[in-house]
Amino acid sequence: MQRSIVFISTIVVFLVFVSCAKKEDEKKASLSKETVVKAIPVEVGQITIHKMQDIVYTLGTIAPSGKANVGASVSGRIEMMHVREGSIVKAGDVIAEIKSTEFQIQYDAAKDRLALAESDYQRKKRLFEAGAITKGERDIAEDRYKQAKAQYELAEQQMAHARVTAPITGVIGAKLFDKGEVVGAGMPIVNIMNTSKVNVESDIPENEVYKIREGQWCQVISDAYTGKVFSGKVVNIAPLADPLSRTFKTKIEIDNPQMLLHPGMFARVTIVVGEKPKARVVPIDAVIEREGSEVIFVVRANEANLIKVKTGLKDNKFVELLNEDLKMGEQVIVQGHQNLKDKDKVSIVTKK
């Protein structure tokens, strides 16, 4: 009887021990599972070396490098119009011809007077050589001939004014009159734009204009030509800012020999104002803002370490770090850090 009681007691103790051990294992497993759940999945990049450029971006509108309103010097009807909108002309090319009745009458009369005076002079010259008239009579005929010739040349010049010529090389931007219409002296007939060179006129903010200087080269692209880059040069920076926008009017000149760029086109300008060939950088997504400061999270021993940073140059992929205490190759969180806190447990996942 006593032996049975001892045996039963032993069994009970064993079962209690097994039960406690099982509960302890379950508790450990539960804690382990809980710890895994608390590790926040994140994606990381690295602190690396990269060439960085300090770039000023600006927008602007294409404008001709020169333009002129061209008009006639005389009044009259347009007899011939030799150009249309878009025609390319060189300096000196005839654009239009004006028929001026007044100048035509003066020209015809001067031409007739010259013919008579020349004929009379030649006749008097022969008579003088033959001894039939005096030298004074011949000289009077010669003076009349010279006067008639001067009047004819003046009339010829006035008639030349009836031919409207291009003062500059360029393209006809606007034609204001057509053949058969009457124009007054000085009235513009066409507008010529010099587009062999064009300008981009843009506004540079006051916090960036100090980086730019005249003579600086830049790149210009137009939405009209996908993938094509034009080379430009800063030729003028306004000395005074616009009082409302606090921007400085800046002019960029572009060679345009193929006339691809037209006035009024939209342009995007990139001006490289500085360069660091070996800058220490992180991916741009690594830097976020917390309480007015720029910060990154560095992963050390599976923990997210919040570090305030000072940044320098930026582009669309990287941000330069100016902190000297950060090491090359350290892992920085680029995704999953928006709600992280300092010392949070993290687990690194591979970007798919």
Blueprint (SSEs and pairs):
Blueprint: H1 2-38, E1 40-46, E2 48-71, E3 76-81, E4 88-89, E5 94-99, H2 101-129, H3 135-160, E6 163-165, E7 170-175, E8 182-183, E9 188-205, E10 217-222, E11 230-237, E12 247-255, E13 266-283, E14 288-290, E15 293-300, E16 303-308, E17 311-314, E18 318-321, E19 331-335, E20 344-348
Parallel strand pairs: 1-20
Antiparallel strand pairs: 1-19, 2-9, 2-13, 3-5, 3-8, 4-7, 5-6, 7-9, 9-12, 10-11, 10-13, 11-12, 13-18, 14-15, 15-16, 16-20, 17-18
Helix pairs in contact: 2-3
Textual characterization of the structure:
The longest helix has 37 residues, at 2-38. The chain has 352 residues and is an alpha+beta fold. The chain is 26% helix and 43% strand. It is built from three helices and 20 strands. The two termini are 71 Å apart.
Query: How confident overall, as mean pLDDT?
Result: 85
Poorly predicted runs are: none
Read across the widest sheet, the strand sequence of neighbours is 14-15-16-20-1-19
| Helix-strand topology string | HEEEEEHHEEEEEEEEEEEEEEE
Percent of residues in helices comes to 25-40%
Oligomeric grouping of the chains: single chain
Q: What shape does the CA trace take?
A: rod-shaped
The profile of the biggest β sheet is: 6 strands, mixed
Please report the number of helical segments: 3
Structural class: alpha+beta
Total beta strands: 20
